[in-house]
Amino acid sequence: MKSMIVGALSAILLGGAVTSFAQVSPEDQIEIRQSGYRYMSWNMSKIKAQVIDGSVEYNQQQVSAAANTIAAIANSGMGALFGPGTDKDIGDLHTRVDPALFDNMQEVAQLAGDLSTAADNLAATAQSGDKDAVRVAFGEVGKSCKACHEKYRMD
Amino acid sequence: MKSMIVGALSAILLGGAVTSFAQVSPEDQIEIRQSGYRYMSWNMSKIKAQVIDGSVEYNQQQVSAAANTIAAIANSGMGALFGPGTDKDIGDLHTRVDPALFDNMQEVAQLAGDLSTAADNLAATAQSGDKDAVRVAFGEVGKSCKACHEKYRMD
Q1: Do residues A53 and B54 lie in contact, with contact meaning Cβ atoms separated by under 8 Å?
Q2: Domain, as residue range, for A48
Q3: What global pTM score does this model have?
């Protein structure tokens, strides 16, 4: 069952890639994926400030909007942005991706699926407005980000 | 009634700003907002390829995921990314924003509200899977992007 799910995720990841490689240059793929991660990161930081640090007062509407954004980006088919030629720097354009990612697409699909699951759960939890539950769900998203960064993001 | 709505939108836009200015540098605000627009643009291009150009076969799941991403980013409180000091280039960091935007925040809030409305409608329409309806809803999002670009984005 697990391998079926991984297989399906790989198909989604690679399927997305097939329809998009023809249209988006490797340079643009790198810039667009970095944009997606940067925008997710900003939204993670907004939630962190409200449920972990407490440096900003908890605002359920803002947290929910941020969680929806993280989930939408996680589910937007980012696999299409890891096409051929995007495994290393292109001129001045720097990528932190570990080239090993491209040899382990099935595991990457699993990690991406874990992020989607955790982000969907955070978005659903944020809608309920329970700050403590949001804190737990937020932690799970953070773990799923970190799991991939530790394996496939270089310094 | 209309002025009440505009007032409420301004409050949302500026309210978002108040909680975030302290934490995000002007440089980061410019980079993050550019990331958000770039990621929206990629998702617009995916829908365009499927419902306007026809260069990619219509895939309801992909179109819906793209529409959800556009709507989520449109609703993510981008007003917080137009804080003091973000009205012009900072060193090598170039922004295309017209400084006039910062003197017309009430109109900008209205334009941002128009984008949110059109993007929410596109996301709801995409979920139904009717390609013709998606084409119409997509056109309305494009118009709302253009309305702001023509007024407040420089070449």
Answers
A1: no
A2: 2-79+86-152
A3: 0.89
* pLDDT for position A22: 52
Which residue type sits at B45?
S
**A1 pLDDT above the threshold of 60:** no
Residue type, B44: M
- Is the pLDDT assigned to residue B116 strictly greater than 80? yes
4-63 of A, contacting B, C-beta below 8 A: 16, 19-20, 23-24, 31-32, 34-36, 38-39, 42-43, 45-46, 49, 55-57, 59, 62
- The tokens of A16 are what? 């997305």
Interhelix angle B60-74/B105-128, rounded to 10 degrees, is 160
ipTM: 0.88
Question: Looking at chain B, which residue has its C-alpha nearest residue A71?
Answer: B69
pLDDT beyond 90 at A4: no
Contact (Cβ atoms closer than 8 angstroms) between residue B121 and residue B135: no
Of residues B23, B42, B55, nearest to A32 (C-beta): B42
The CATH number of residue B113's host domain is 1.20.120.10
- CB contact (8 A) between residue B39 and residue A32: yes
Distance separating alpha carbons of residues A61 and A66, to the nearest angstrom: 9
| Dist. CA B67–CA B126, nearest whole Å | 7
Tokens 């993510």: give the residue.
B76
Overall domain count for chain A: 1
CB atoms within 10 A of CB A84: 10
